[in-house]
Amino acid sequence: MITDSYGRIINYLRLAVTDRCNLRCTYCMPQDGLDWLPRKELMTYEEMLRICSLFVKMGVEKIRITGGEPFIRKDLMVFLEHLSATSGLKELTLTTNGLLTAPLVPELKRIGIQSVNLSLDTLDEQRFRKISRRDGLGQVIKTLETLLAFGIAVKINTVVMEDHNIEDIIPLVQLTKTQPVSVRFIEEMPFNGGTHTISLKWDHQHILQFIREHFPDIQKTPDTPHATSSNYHIPGYEGNIGIIAAYSRSFCGSCNRIRITPTGIVRTCLYDAGKLNVKDLLRKGSTDEDLEIMIRAVLLKKPADGWDAQRLLSGQKSAHQSMATIGG
Ligand code: SAM
Ligand code: SF4
Which domains, from first to last, does the chain contain? Predict the structure, then answer.
């Protein structure tokens, strides 16, 4: 079991396999993309498998593959198949923008993926183009339909942005009337590659108030332990609504997560700068025993919450990276 100095059990690893992406979402990265990481700086699949297997031995039960867009990386399916066979791993899941995912859904099902987080900020083609600076809404919808057809649970991630997709909030809530999906509205965070500062007009309270005005009978449902979303249900609807206070950071007290960036940096908090590079250690010949000691030591320094992490940064290269390089 891995615990931090606040007694929190860390059993959920989020691994970003690439920083590259086929979209350019305004809240995530600049129009021209990022200074993509050189390939030799990325962890290889072999390195990722070794690190994941070590984390599972140490007590991690759930791994989420993310990025960048994970399906951009060559041979991802081969990696997922090997990873899913890791002894002791209870849940393997992923986050995707859904552009390339639909044809791979049968294969995802076969290797045991039971749930997928799908990013979908709008149901309108023009707004999709404006937000993501690319076309592709049709492919994302196809991915949604295929995932549901194959019985894979879907959580839709929607970043709420003034001037971009407020008109989508109600249609997205209405999607839960007939579809067994969980639509999660996320506060925008400052991780956009430095393109703009964020105004938090649409914080979690404002989002809930707005939804409640349209659906007065919306009900609070119990939140699972470690949930980042505060969850709701509209009576008679198939799906659920979640609201994620990603910027307000009201859920940090029960955090069970650790992240590894595409270059192998272990981040004990989304808002910290990363304290250990496991890829470099692997390439220098560290044994699993060495790595375990260093990982446990770094986890003991996991900050109390995202505000604490931000304070501790004190001017270091920080928070204004992109979610694609951190691993969303
Ligand atoms: N490319 C994949 C996707 O979009 O689903 C996986 C990586 S993406 C960085 C993971 C999640 O982070 C997405 O759901 C995205 O909406 C969210 N995200 C990215 N930048 C964000 C920001 N500045 N604030 C809040 N959420 C953000
Ligand atoms: Fe790409 Fe995901 Fe970032 Fe959008 S949020 S640019 S899809 S990595």
Answer: 12-326 (3.20.20.70)
